[in-house]
Design a protein that fits this description.
The complex is a heterodimer of chains A (493) and B (113). A two-stranded antiparallel sheet of chain A has the order 1-2. Chain A has 21 helices and 2 strands. The longest helix of chain A has 32 residues, at 153-184. Chain A is mainly alpha-helical. By secondary structure, chain B is mostly helical. Chain B is 65% helix and 0% strand. The longest helix of chain B is centred in the last third of the chain and has 32 residues, at 67-98. The model of chain B has no long low-confidence stretch (mean pLDDT 86). The chains are: A mainly alpha (493), B mainly alpha (113). Chain A binds chain B through residues 130, 133-134, 137, 141, 144, 148, 151, 153-154, 156-161, 163-164, 167-168, 170-172, 174-175, 177-179, 181-182, 185, 187, 231, and chain B through 20, 25, 28, 32, 35-36, 38-40, 42-43, 45-48, 68-69, 72, 75-76, 79-80, 82-83, 86-87, 90-91, 93-94, 97-98, 103, 106, 108, 112-113.
Chain lengths: 493, 113
């Protein structure tokens, strides 16, 4: 099917439009959203099989030939990310159905999630730099809705900052695209890559590379630009936080991964060096935050910064092994972050507070939740055979191959501290003296456990089944190592 | 003409930065509006301002305007218009609930909840 790359974008879009007509019919909203996300997952799986069998799939919208129109490009990397995002959204929406109050759900919640999925899947699929900006705006505007929905004072206060940061970074994105267009005169990513390599080593391209790093770094929360993240992400309710933490920052990371392997490969000594240093700083700062705080949400939020650093360090090292590790780790981190946020959400639902001092001894009443969290925490730190291990191993190996010693060591040390920060929640929350809980939603805990446990199962499968998944990842990495594959697939006549 | 446009864009960006750094929420929003306008003008300018012919490609036509930047600017304007409208409503609601439009008093800590 030639329109296959469009389906993961089109299905949620049409569903969102349909859902808008009856926002108050909550049961119908729930059923239709889950069905639609299920259909998106099926479409992504079919697309993945198609890409595996026949190579990169492209679709020229409106039949304008490649460098002139907007092209959707589904290579293995984007398909895997689309598939992972859709699966995550499925379980998070399932969780949200149980967790949220009916009143909350009736204010366009599912419609917001659908448009968020449209934007994310679109950003992963598009092969046009300006279209990437448009899809960024689609999911950002949905995220503005989701972050402020509920209208608590803290939410209003934090969402103003969140909106402000994103409006500024969008303006910078437009500026960066303008500069790029002025230099190369094209918007198609494959065409840009080709023209930049014809241009040779040019100073202005390096400037644009740093500009893009600034823009995507703001979205992806790398170190000097992560300051908005802990405040903004602690405001919305848990299911929304899980979606944001698992998906939104990863789109920024994906964009850096894409542009820094496709466009800016001329002066890697300068651009990738800066990226590498910032990535390592992200690891350090993220770890400090994760270890320092005793609030369960904030601990996991700082772990996002660590993960972004680890992935981008893999990108900066630019060896085949480290890129493969980065892709492995990217997918792993999306799954495990969503799972952890959902599990921590159950703890908050039980305790009625997100501070560790109000928790303790939960394992007595909720053993299943405790042990699921334990496995998820091990997976987060990358204990073999769970999912984080292979990605980290390859990144460290790639770092050593690139002749770096400090970077791989920092990644390894950070794993220990990440494990400590996650275990801190386990030891203080699940062990110790049981406390009196005041959570209004405690009776939902066992029902909330099901979608969270399903995500942990996926993480276990991703780790244990590495051998089965590796061919897909290798295929995803090929165009990153050799942009010619990507260019040829898009610009073929 | 390009020089003049560059100066205008520079002035817009400068004023935008000044306004965004101020305390009053309304000024901040006006600042973001100016910032997007600067970015939009930048797109038009960076692709080269040509005078005269319409963007129609025919045999024998040598000077024509690049239509792509105009399409881009149109998209970007629509997006920034929508976001600004949302931002204004959000600011009004926040002003009602928090009782202040001073960014200084919206810092995230317990006493401001």
């Amino acid at each position: 099917m030639i329109n296959l790359p469009l389906l993961p974008i089109l299905i949620p879009l049409l569903t969102a439009v349909i859902l808008m007509f009856f926002p108050k019919r909550i049961k119908a909203q729930r059923f239709i959203s889950l069905t639609a996300i299920g259909a998106t997952i099926v479409a992504s799986i079919v697309l993945a099989a198609e890409v595996k069998a026949n190579g990169i799939q492209t679709l020229n919208l409106g039949s304008w030939p490649a460098p002139y129109g907007i092209t959707l490009v589904s290579d293995m990397l984007s398909v895997l990310l689309v598939l992972t995002s859709s699966i995550l959204t499925f379980f998070v929406v399932w969780y949200a159905m149980i967790y949220m109050d009916d009143k909350y759900e009736s204010f366009f919640f599912y419609i917001g999630v659908m448009f968020l999925l449209v934007g994310i899947n679109g950003a992963f699929t598009t092969g046009d730099i300006f279209n990437l900006f448009v899809f960024f705006e689609v999911f950002l505007i949905s995220s503005y809705l989701l972050i402020v929905l509920g209208g608590k004072k803290a939410q209003l206060r934090e969402s103003i900052k969140y909106v402000l940061i994103n409006v500024i970074s969008s303006a910078l994105f437009v500026t960066a695209v303008a500069y790029l267009y002025a230099v190369v005169g094209s918007l198609n990513m494959a065409d840009i890559s080709q023209r930049i390599s014809e241009l040779g080593n040019s100073g202005i391209i390096t400037v644009i590379a740093i500009f893009f790093l600034l823009v995507f770094g703001l979205k992806g929360a790398i170190v000097p630009l992560y300051f908005w993240l802990p405040g903004s992400y602690s405001a919305p309710p848990i299911p929304v936080l899980a979606l944001f933490g698992a998906l939104l920052t990863k789109v920024g990371v994906y964009s850096i991964l894409r542009t820094y392997t496709l466009f800016f490969t001329q002066d890697t000594g300068y651009t990738h060096e800066i990226l590498g240093v910032l990535a390592l700083l992200s690891i350090v700062v993220g770890v400090i935050g994760a270890v320092a705080y005793r609030e369960v949400k904030t601990i996991i939020i700082y772990n996002i910064v660590v993960a972004v650093g680890v992935i981008l360090y893999g990108v900066a090292a630019m060896t085949p092994a480290s890129l493969e590790g980065a892709v492995f780790y990217l997918l792993h981190d999306m799954v495990i972050k969503a799972a952890l946020f959902l599990l921590v959400g159950i703890m908050i639902a039980i305790a009625g507070s997100s501070h560790l001092k109000d928790m303790g001894g939960m394992i007595r009443d909720y053993p299943r939740i405790g042990w699921t969290y334990f496995v998820a925490a091990l997976a987060l730190a990358g204990i073999p055979p769970l999912s984080g291990f292979i990605g980290k191993l390859l990144i460290v190996q790639g770092g050593f191959e690139a002749g770096d010693i400090v970077g791989p060591l920092l990644v390894l040390i950070s794993s220990l501290l990440v494990l400590y920060s996650a275990m801190k929640i386990f030891m203080n929350g699940f062990w110790g003296t049981p406390k009196a809980y005041h959570g209004a939603k405690a009776k939902l805990a066992n029902r909330l456990w099901v979608p969270a446990a399903a995500l942990v199962l996926i993480a276990i499968f991703y780790g244990v089944g590495t051998e089965a998944i590796r061919p897909f990842i290798t295929m995803a990495v090929e165009p990153l190592i050799d942009p010619a594959i990507y260019i040829e697939a898009v610009l073929k006549e | 003409m390009e020089i003049l446009m560059s100066i205008v864009i520079g002035v817009l960006f400068t004023s935008a930065v000044y306004l965004i750094l101020s305390k009053s929420l309304l000024r901040v929003i006006i600042g973001t509006g100016l910032l997007s306008h600067g970015a939009h003008l930048l797109i038009l300018t960076m692709s080269g301002l040509k005078t005269g012919a319409a963007p129609v490609l025919k045999d024998g036509v040598t000077s024509y305007t690049d239509p792509l930047p105009q399409a881009l600017v149109l998209t970007a304007i629509v997006i920034s218009f929508g976001v600004t409208a949302f931002f204004l409503v959000l600011a009004y609601r926040a002003y009602q609930d928090l009782g202040t439009d001073n960014m200084e008093e919206m810092k995230g800590n317990e006493s401001n909840d």
